Amino acid sequence: MGNAALQGLRVLDLGDFGSGPYCARILGDLGAEVIKVEPPAGDSARRIGPFPDDVPSSEASGLFLYLNFNKLGITLNRSTAAGQRVLHSLLAESDVVVLNAALGGGNKFGLDVQELHARYPDLVLTCITPFGLEGKYADNAGYDINVSAQGGASPLPQEPGLEPLMPPSIQIELLSGLGAAFATIVALIARAGGGGRVIDFAQGLFIAAHSSGALARRVPGQAAPSAQQPGGLYPNHVLRCKDGEVFLFAPQKQQWIGFVQAMGEPEWTKDRRFRNRRAMNEEYPEETDALVEAWLTQHTKQELLAIFMQHRVPSAPLLNVKDVLESDHLRERGFFQQIDHPVAGPLTYPGFQFRMSGTPMRVVRPAPLLGEHNEEILCGRLEMSRVELSRLRNAGVI
Amino acid sequence: MEPLEGYRIVDFGTALVGGVAPRMLAELGAEVIKVESRARLDGFRLGRPVLGDEATQADESLWIELQPSMQAAGRDKLSVTLNMNKPEGLDLVKRLIAKSDAAMNNYSPGVLQRRGLDYESLRAIKPDIIVLSMPGAGETGPLRDYVSYAMTAEALSGMGGLAGYEDGPLLGHLPLAWGDVVNAISGALAVVTALHHRNETGQGQSIEAVQLEASAALMGVPYLDYLMNGRIATPRGNFHPMMAPHNNYPTQDDRWVAIAVHSDDEWLAFCQATGHPEWHSDPRYADLVARLEHRDQLDRAVSQWTRERSSDEAVRRLQEQGIAATPVLTTEDQAADDYFFDRGAFVDVEHPLLGRLELPGKTVPIGEMPHSARPAPMLGQDNGYVLGEILGLSTTDIARLVEEEAVY
Question: Is the pLDDT of residue A229 over 50?
């Protein structure tokens, strides 16, 4: 086992809820020492589930546990003078600070970022906001659904009566955290030659910059064709199978041939009408769906996994969380990891985004209890006396 | 100076994942050399022409330059044509890697080994090389041969099954080829992390960023909900457990506005901004729990308000009171707003065949802004630079290699 990639790097996580904490956790996964600073009431993720047996507990929020393992945790009331002193002692020792707006806090961190940059010129300040620290939308309020709307991740619905949908399950926050981690490492590489930086990570812009070829394809004055229907060929949609649903997709000619073979080349596929995939998609999709579904509904999701793989078809059953957690493939690959937590107990968490041969990522510790490392950090690291510590505690600073 | 200036990346990537991961380094100043060949072209160069005027499209040999997806994924890169089916072509690839910092690919399992381009072989050529592979399902495991696109990874991670309406159609996939974007950013993150580590220690390494696992890594919340409560997550539309109203609402001008109300203070401000103080005293909407319970009625009431005004007016009136309200934008809407260009998320480039193009720009705000971007390279446009200047071949040698289709 080699060393961790970011060994020796010190990160201060001043984030809340989603994107900032996830960004900081990734840096922790890569071996940085991450200190999470929470207000005395705790990160707002602690109040959001899932909770074991649906019983709310600030120490057992699944959202919080998932976004905050590999971190030490302290509490700090940043609005007090004593809290500010502790914060600055920590900033002076950090390489990176991660900030995002508190849930409901808009773009405001309660910190002047440019002032911090001037005071700590070697510090990388990763600032995640919906619409940027600067620019004409900087002062606008926004949550994930607003970021998704501005970034183009809520495409117009294909059917009347439906509203545009944002991506599910806090994906906007997580993708932002991932992108901000990338930006942070790049800034660390650049720091070797010229000091820290303020990273003005605007979530809406980040999503918009991933709009792929849709922008280039656009002919000014004409509506942009949907990026989700390349070529408009059949199939590119959901149908039922025996025990669930399947996303059907076979963009290349060879893949559709594979699909037809997977179905056992039934008679209807020899009909000229069912060799024109554009017409199948545009002119008689229901008729085609009925024929395909007649075959699909004879097979389970597990059977279809094997069949599609064998015939090299990129279609796939829409697995649910139970299917995924029981997946032979991910288990055999050792993807999931067990993490034991003093309150929530042992649970299975998803693994990391990637695997590095020389600097493997590891779980070093579960998410911190509220203020778990106050004494370790303040007395150990900052060499504060125990008397001082209890004074801060009594004054509600920690 | 751009932050990744001076780093050289060999890019074997194809399509969106393979293209975008190295592009994220190119747009920050790395010299990314796309290795390609007429022997087997990137799928993003194939298909009927989309860009260009009639005269350009009439020349079939130019079709490989006329794909918008190639422009987006190939921006800011160089192109060299090396035919790895020829021993000399493969040898040139190895010589190029010997002069590079990292090599990135999204090949299927086994392809690198067959070509002798796996990490162990490359390490013999360049001891501190960084090799990133981005296979669909991984180099090992029962699904390793699964052909994977964005929606495949979304489906197999459980993410795709959550994309849909609460009591309506199941979409089964996310926008923007999410499963690809997640994988590409993960790959880019892995490579810069390895570069940082190499700068500190002198050690290279190999990295596997699996498309399926990149998506599954973002599914912690629904996985934990199953483990904690046995709950199998289902699509929730635009439902949010901590906010109501929270949806996209239709406006008079046939657009949509995203509105989200979180705290009780915001709810009060919302009722005032919409001129509906009676909503605030309505017991159905008394607090978050009540508003969530009656969210269908609440959504209808809010829709009625938004339908009576333009998207701009609705957004302005709500934002004035500090309420999160944003128009739902299409690519077309975004392109009409200078904001995206001023902040570098979109860029103007000048293409030698196509003239001015608008392309997705810098994904993260590091380095010079606005960004001076280049269009995707024409096939083999940098052969002279790569073979002559980097590898030091003479023009006679290059001509011979072209003749023998090692450079092809």
Answer: no
Summarize pLDDT for A159-187 with one digit per residue, the tens: 888 999 999 999 999 999 999 999 999 99
CB B347 within 8 A of CB B341: yes
Instruction: Check: CB of residue A13 under 8 Å from CB of residue A370.
Output: no
Beta strand pairing status for A96-100 and A124-129?
parallel
Nearest CA in chain B to A328: B142
Residues of B in contact with A214 (CB under 8 A): 68, 331
CB contact under 8 A, B249 and A163: yes
Provide the ipTM. Answer: 0.98
Q: Is A351 on the interface with B (CB under 8 A)?
A: yes
Residues within 8 A of B (CB atoms), A 185-204 only: 185-190, 192-194, 197, 199-202
Q: B258 touching A, CB under 8 A?
A: yes
10 Å CB burial of residue B10 (0-12, 13-18, 19+) is: buried
Provide, as residue numbers in chain A, all residues whose Cβ is less than 8 Å from the Cβ of B256. 149, 154, 156, 163-164
3-state secondary structure of A276: coil
- When pLDDT is averaged across residues A129-145 and rounded to a whole number, the result is 93
Residues A313-370 pLDDT 10s: 999 999 999 999 999 999 999 999 999 999 999 999 999 999 999 999 999 999 999 9
Q: Which fold has domain A230-319?
A: formyl-coa transferase, domain 3 (3.30.1540)
Written as six digits, the tokens of A360 are 């493997």
CATH of domain A10-154+165-210+334-394: 3.40.50.10540
Lowest-confidence pick of A290-304, B102-116, B204-218: B102-116
| CATH 3.40.50.10540 domain extents, chain A | 10-154+165-210+334-394
How does A203-224 read in b/e, with b if 16+ C-beta sit within 10 Å?
bbbbbbbbbbbbbbbbeeeeeb
Determine the topology of domain B246-330 in CATH.
formyl-coa transferase, domain 3 (3.30.1540)
| Inter-chain residue contact B155 with A321, CB threshold 8 Å | no
Q: Is the pLDDT of residue B406 over 80?
A: yes
The answer to whether B232 and B219 are in contact (CB under 8 A) is no
Percent pLDDT > 70 in chain B is 100
Determine contact: A322 vs chain B, CB below 8 A.
Answer: yes
Provide the pLDDT confidence category of residue B370 given band limits of 50, 70 and 90.
confident
DSSP H helices, B104-177, are 111-115, 119-125, 150-157
Residues of chain A numbered 16-55 and touching chain B (CB < 8 Å): 26, 30, 48-54
Write the residue in A146, A183, A209 that is nearest to B326 by C-beta: A146
The pLDDT, as a whole number, for residue A221 is: 47
A108-122, A368-382, B310-324: range with lowest mean pLDDT:
A108-122
Interface of B with A in 214-233 (CB under 8 A): 214, 216-229, 231-233
Is residue A150 within 8 angstroms of chain B, CB to CB? yes
Q: How many residues does chain B have?
A: 408
Q: Which of A212, A308, A350 sits opposite B219 (nearest CB)?
A: A350
